[in-house]
Design a protein that fits this description.
By secondary structure, the protein is of the alpha+beta class. The protein has a single domain (2-155, 214-240), classed as Thaumatin. It has five helices and 13 strands. The protein has helices at residues 2-18, 179-183, 186-189, 204-212, 223-226, and strands at 21-28, 35-40, 59-65, 69-81, 84-89, 110-114, 121-127, 136-141, 150-152, 165-167, 173-176, 228-231, 235-240. Strands 2, 4, 5, 6, 7 and 12 form a six-stranded antiparallel sheet that branches. β6 (110-114) and β7 (121-127) form a beta hairpin. The structure holds 2-acetamido-2-deoxy-beta-D-glucopyranose (3 copies). One 2-acetamido-2-deoxy-beta-D-glucopyranose binds at residues 20, 66-67, 116, 120, 232.
Amino acid sequence: METQALLCLTLAFLFFSGTHSVTFTIKNNCPYTIWPGTLTGGGLPQLTPTGLELASGASLALDVSANWSGRMWARTQCSDANGKFSCGTANCGSGQVTCNGAGAIPPASLVEFTLNGSGGQDFYDVSLVDGFNLPLTITPKGGSASCQSTSCPGNVNQVCPPELAVKGSDGSLIVCKSACEAFNQSQYCCTGDFSTPDRCPPTQYSKVFKDQCPQAYSYAYDDKTSTFTCPTGANYLVTFCP
Ligand SMILES: *[C@@H]1O[C@H](CO)[C@@H](O)[C@H](O)[C@H]1NC(C)=O
Ligand SMILES: *[C@@H]1O[C@H](CO)[C@@H](O)[C@H](O)[C@H]1NC(C)=O
Ligand SMILES: *[C@@H]1O[C@H](CO)[C@@H](O)[C@H](O)[C@H]1NC(C)=O
Protein backbone atom coordinates (compact mmCIF):
# COMPACT_ATOMS: atom_id res chain seq x y z
CA MET A 1 0.00 0.00 0.00
CA GLU A 2 2.69 2.43 1.08
CA THR A 3 4.75 1.70 -2.03
CA GLN A 4 1.71 2.31 -4.17
CA ALA A 5 0.97 5.60 -2.45
CA LEU A 6 4.58 6.67 -2.95
CA LEU A 7 4.42 5.64 -6.60
CA CYS A 8 1.22 7.67 -6.99
CA LEU A 9 2.84 10.71 -5.43
CA THR A 10 5.91 10.31 -7.62
CA LEU A 11 3.78 10.03 -10.74
CA ALA A 12 1.73 13.03 -9.68
CA PHE A 13 4.93 15.01 -9.11
CA LEU A 14 6.29 14.04 -12.52
CA PHE A 15 2.97 14.90 -14.10
CA PHE A 16 2.73 18.34 -12.56
CA SER A 17 6.38 19.37 -12.72
CA GLY A 18 8.72 17.34 -14.90
CA THR A 19 6.38 16.83 -17.81
CA HIS A 20 4.63 20.16 -17.56
CA SER A 21 3.45 21.26 -20.97
CA VAL A 22 1.45 24.04 -22.54
CA THR A 23 -1.42 23.40 -24.92
CA PHE A 24 -1.81 25.46 -28.05
CA THR A 25 -5.14 25.23 -29.81
CA ILE A 26 -4.96 26.30 -33.44
CA LYS A 27 -8.35 27.22 -34.87
CA ASN A 28 -9.31 27.97 -38.45
CA ASN A 29 -12.14 30.50 -38.56
CA CYS A 30 -11.42 31.33 -42.18
CA PRO A 31 -14.10 30.40 -44.71
CA TYR A 32 -11.45 28.32 -46.52
CA THR A 33 -8.83 25.68 -45.75
CA ILE A 34 -5.52 26.87 -44.30
CA TRP A 35 -2.20 25.06 -43.74
CA PRO A 36 -0.67 26.32 -40.46
CA GLY A 37 3.09 26.04 -40.01
CA THR A 38 5.20 25.97 -36.84
CA LEU A 39 8.86 26.90 -36.43
CA THR A 40 10.61 26.24 -33.12
CA GLY A 41 13.43 28.59 -32.13
CA GLY A 42 16.24 28.55 -29.60
CA GLY A 43 17.81 25.33 -30.84
CA LEU A 44 14.96 23.23 -29.44
CA PRO A 45 13.65 20.26 -31.44
CA GLN A 46 10.88 21.08 -33.92
CA LEU A 47 7.29 20.36 -32.92
CA THR A 48 5.27 17.58 -34.42
CA PRO A 49 3.76 18.67 -36.72
CA THR A 50 5.68 21.51 -38.40
CA GLY A 51 2.81 21.87 -40.83
CA LEU A 52 -0.73 20.62 -41.24
CA GLU A 53 -3.96 21.08 -43.14
CA LEU A 54 -6.89 22.60 -41.25
CA ALA A 55 -10.33 22.73 -42.86
CA SER A 56 -12.58 25.73 -42.35
CA GLY A 57 -14.01 25.57 -38.81
CA ALA A 58 -11.55 22.89 -37.64
CA SER A 59 -9.13 23.15 -34.75
CA LEU A 60 -6.18 21.18 -33.46
CA ALA A 61 -4.62 20.95 -30.00
CA LEU A 62 -0.83 20.84 -29.81
CA ASP A 63 1.14 20.18 -26.62
CA VAL A 64 4.47 21.97 -26.37
CA SER A 65 7.17 22.09 -23.71
CA ALA A 66 6.71 24.71 -20.98
CA ASN A 67 9.90 26.36 -22.31
CA TRP A 68 8.87 26.42 -25.95
CA SER A 69 9.71 29.38 -28.15
CA GLY A 70 8.89 29.84 -31.79
CA ARG A 71 6.38 31.10 -34.27
CA MET A 72 3.28 30.01 -36.13
CA TRP A 73 1.55 31.22 -39.28
CA ALA A 74 -0.99 30.00 -41.79
CA ARG A 75 -0.42 29.22 -45.44
CA THR A 76 -3.29 29.69 -47.88
CA GLN A 77 -4.08 28.73 -51.47
CA CYS A 78 -1.97 25.59 -51.27
CA SER A 79 -1.95 22.86 -53.85
CA ASP A 80 -0.04 19.78 -54.76
CA ALA A 81 1.28 19.85 -58.30
CA ASN A 82 3.15 16.74 -59.48
CA GLY A 83 3.99 15.78 -55.91
CA LYS A 84 5.33 19.20 -55.01
CA PHE A 85 3.26 21.02 -52.42
CA SER A 86 3.29 24.82 -52.46
CA CYS A 87 1.16 27.70 -51.27
CA GLY A 88 0.03 31.05 -52.66
CA THR A 89 0.76 32.81 -49.36
CA ALA A 90 3.21 32.22 -46.49
CA ASN A 91 4.74 29.20 -48.24
CA CYS A 92 7.56 27.54 -46.33
CA GLY A 93 9.25 26.12 -49.42
CA SER A 94 9.63 22.57 -48.13
CA GLY A 95 7.61 21.13 -51.00
CA GLN A 96 5.52 19.29 -48.40
CA VAL A 97 2.67 19.97 -45.96
CA THR A 98 5.21 19.76 -43.13
CA CYS A 99 7.73 22.62 -43.06
CA ASN A 100 10.53 20.60 -41.39
CA GLY A 101 12.30 23.57 -39.82
CA ALA A 102 11.67 26.05 -42.63
CA GLY A 103 9.98 29.34 -41.77
CA ALA A 104 7.33 31.29 -43.64
CA ILE A 105 8.53 33.06 -46.77
CA PRO A 106 7.26 36.67 -46.39
CA PRO A 107 4.76 38.20 -46.53
CA ALA A 108 3.18 36.33 -43.61
CA SER A 109 1.30 37.37 -40.48
CA LEU A 110 3.03 35.65 -37.54
CA VAL A 111 2.35 34.77 -33.93
CA GLU A 112 5.53 34.57 -31.80
CA PHE A 113 5.98 32.98 -28.38
CA THR A 114 8.70 32.70 -25.75
CA LEU A 115 7.24 30.57 -22.97
CA ASN A 116 8.71 30.76 -19.46
CA GLY A 117 11.05 33.59 -20.41
CA SER A 118 12.58 36.12 -18.03
CA GLY A 119 10.77 36.43 -14.71
CA GLY A 120 8.73 33.27 -15.33
CA GLN A 121 6.62 35.11 -17.89
CA ASP A 122 5.35 33.96 -21.24
CA PHE A 123 6.03 36.56 -23.94
CA TYR A 124 3.86 36.62 -27.03
CA ASP A 125 3.01 38.88 -29.92
CA VAL A 126 1.40 39.17 -33.31
CA SER A 127 3.96 40.35 -35.86
CA LEU A 128 3.47 42.05 -39.22
CA VAL A 129 7.21 42.79 -39.50
CA ASP A 130 7.29 40.20 -42.30
CA GLY A 131 4.12 41.58 -43.89
CA PHE A 132 0.49 40.46 -43.79
CA ASN A 133 -1.38 37.54 -45.28
CA LEU A 134 -4.39 37.06 -42.97
CA PRO A 135 -5.83 38.30 -39.66
CA LEU A 136 -5.16 36.34 -36.46
CA THR A 137 -5.54 36.43 -32.68
CA ILE A 138 -3.74 35.00 -29.62
CA THR A 139 -6.00 34.32 -26.64
CA PRO A 140 -4.52 33.07 -23.32
CA LYS A 141 -6.70 30.42 -21.66
CA GLY A 142 -6.90 29.39 -18.03
CA GLY A 143 -4.01 31.55 -16.85
CA SER A 144 -3.92 34.58 -14.60
CA ALA A 145 -6.67 37.16 -15.06
CA SER A 146 -3.95 39.64 -16.06
CA CYS A 147 -3.27 37.74 -19.29
CA GLN A 148 -4.57 39.69 -22.28
CA SER A 149 -5.33 38.58 -25.78
CA THR A 150 -3.60 40.27 -28.70
CA SER A 151 -4.74 40.40 -32.24
CA CYS A 152 -4.43 41.62 -35.78
CA PRO A 153 -8.13 41.70 -36.59
CA GLY A 154 -7.95 44.07 -39.55
CA ASN A 155 -7.59 43.22 -43.19
CA VAL A 156 -4.40 45.05 -44.18
CA ASN A 157 -4.84 43.85 -47.76
CA GLN A 158 -7.79 46.21 -48.19
CA VAL A 159 -5.61 49.28 -47.49
CA CYS A 160 -2.27 47.98 -48.76
CA PRO A 161 -0.34 50.68 -50.68
CA PRO A 162 0.11 49.62 -54.32
CA GLU A 163 3.91 49.53 -53.96
CA LEU A 164 3.59 46.85 -51.24
CA ALA A 165 0.79 44.82 -52.81
CA VAL A 166 1.24 41.33 -54.22
CA LYS A 167 -1.44 40.09 -56.59
CA GLY A 168 -2.53 36.54 -57.28
CA SER A 169 -2.95 34.99 -60.70
CA ASP A 170 -6.56 36.23 -60.83
CA GLY A 171 -5.43 39.83 -60.25
CA SER A 172 -6.83 40.08 -56.72
CA LEU A 173 -4.60 41.36 -53.94
CA ILE A 174 -3.52 38.42 -51.79
CA VAL A 175 -0.76 39.71 -49.51
CA CYS A 176 0.81 42.96 -48.37
CA LYS A 177 4.61 43.19 -48.10
CA SER A 178 6.41 45.04 -45.37
CA ALA A 179 8.26 48.14 -46.58
CA CYS A 180 11.52 46.45 -45.51
CA GLU A 181 10.86 43.54 -47.83
CA ALA A 182 9.57 45.73 -50.66
CA PHE A 183 12.38 48.32 -50.66
CA ASN A 184 15.20 46.76 -48.60
CA GLN A 185 16.18 50.14 -47.17
CA SER A 186 17.66 50.67 -43.71
CA GLN A 187 15.01 53.12 -42.52
CA TYR A 188 12.34 50.45 -43.09
CA CYS A 189 14.43 47.46 -41.94
CA CYS A 190 15.95 49.24 -38.89
CA THR A 191 19.44 48.30 -40.05
CA GLY A 192 22.64 50.28 -40.62
CA ASP A 193 22.22 53.90 -39.45
CA PHE A 194 18.72 52.99 -38.24
CA SER A 195 19.64 50.01 -36.09
CA THR A 196 18.48 51.27 -32.68
CA PRO A 197 14.92 51.93 -31.44
CA ASP A 198 15.44 55.71 -31.18
CA ARG A 199 16.85 55.90 -34.69
CA CYS A 200 14.13 53.78 -36.28
CA PRO A 201 10.77 55.49 -35.78
CA PRO A 202 7.52 54.38 -37.46
CA THR A 203 7.21 55.20 -41.17
CA GLN A 204 4.26 56.04 -43.43
CA TYR A 205 4.26 52.35 -44.37
CA SER A 206 4.46 50.85 -40.87
CA LYS A 207 1.59 53.19 -39.91
CA VAL A 208 -0.68 51.56 -42.49
CA PHE A 209 -0.19 48.23 -40.66
CA LYS A 210 -0.48 49.81 -37.21
CA ASP A 211 -3.75 51.58 -38.06
CA GLN A 212 -5.35 48.25 -38.98
CA CYS A 213 -3.77 46.28 -36.15
CA PRO A 214 -2.78 48.52 -33.21
CA GLN A 215 -1.67 45.57 -31.03
CA ALA A 216 0.61 43.99 -33.64
CA TYR A 217 4.26 44.70 -34.46
CA SER A 218 4.24 46.98 -37.52
CA TYR A 219 8.06 47.28 -37.70
CA ALA A 220 11.06 45.86 -35.85
CA TYR A 221 11.13 48.26 -32.88
CA ASP A 222 7.39 48.40 -32.23
CA ASP A 223 7.86 46.59 -28.87
CA LYS A 224 6.11 49.03 -26.55
CA THR A 225 2.60 48.46 -27.82
CA SER A 226 3.06 44.99 -29.24
CA THR A 227 4.74 42.67 -26.69
CA PHE A 228 2.40 40.91 -24.26
CA THR A 229 3.25 38.89 -21.16
CA CYS A 230 1.42 36.38 -19.03
CA PRO A 231 2.69 34.46 -15.96
CA THR A 232 3.47 30.85 -16.93
CA GLY A 233 0.62 28.40 -16.56
CA ALA A 234 -1.68 29.58 -19.33
CA ASN A 235 -2.60 27.70 -22.48
CA TYR A 236 -3.08 29.58 -25.76
CA LEU A 237 -5.66 29.70 -28.49
CA VAL A 238 -4.40 30.90 -31.87
CA THR A 239 -7.28 31.79 -34.16
CA PHE A 240 -6.82 32.49 -37.85
CA CYS A 241 -9.47 34.87 -39.31
CA PRO A 242 -10.86 35.68 -35.83
C1 LIG B 1 12.69 24.60 -18.66
O1 LIG B 1 13.98 25.15 -18.52
C2 LIG B 1 14.46 25.10 -17.20
C3 LIG B 1 15.78 25.85 -17.11
O2 LIG B 1 16.50 25.78 -18.27
C4 LIG B 1 14.57 23.64 -16.77
O3 LIG B 1 14.98 23.60 -15.42
C5 LIG B 1 13.20 22.99 -16.91
O4 LIG B 1 13.31 21.61 -16.63
C6 LIG B 1 12.68 23.15 -18.31
N1 LIG B 1 11.32 22.62 -18.37
C7 LIG B 1 10.90 21.88 -19.39
C8 LIG B 1 9.49 21.41 -19.28
O5 LIG B 1 11.60 21.62 -20.34
C1 LIG C 1 10.79 27.95 -16.01
O1 LIG C 1 12.14 28.35 -16.01
C2 LIG C 1 12.71 28.29 -14.72
C3 LIG C 1 14.08 28.93 -14.77
O2 LIG C 1 14.64 28.93 -16.04
C4 LIG C 1 12.74 26.86 -14.27
O3 LIG C 1 13.29 26.77 -13.00
C5 LIG C 1 11.33 26.29 -14.27
O4 LIG C 1 11.35 24.91 -14.00
C6 LIG C 1 10.68 26.49 -15.60
N1 LIG C 1 9.27 26.11 -15.53
C7 LIG C 1 8.79 25.09 -16.21
C8 LIG C 1 7.33 24.84 -16.01
O5 LIG C 1 9.46 24.41 -16.94
C1 LIG D 1 19.39 44.34 -48.97
O1 LIG D 1 20.39 45.32 -48.99
C2 LIG D 1 21.61 44.91 -48.40
C3 LIG D 1 22.57 46.07 -48.41
O2 LIG D 1 21.96 47.24 -47.99
C4 LIG D 1 22.16 43.74 -49.18
O3 LIG D 1 23.34 43.29 -48.54
C5 LIG D 1 21.14 42.62 -49.21
O4 LIG D 1 21.61 41.57 -50.02
C6 LIG D 1 19.82 43.13 -49.75
N1 LIG D 1 18.82 42.06 -49.64
C7 LIG D 1 18.03 41.73 -50.63
C8 LIG D 1 17.05 40.64 -50.34
O5 LIG D 1 18.07 42.27 -51.72
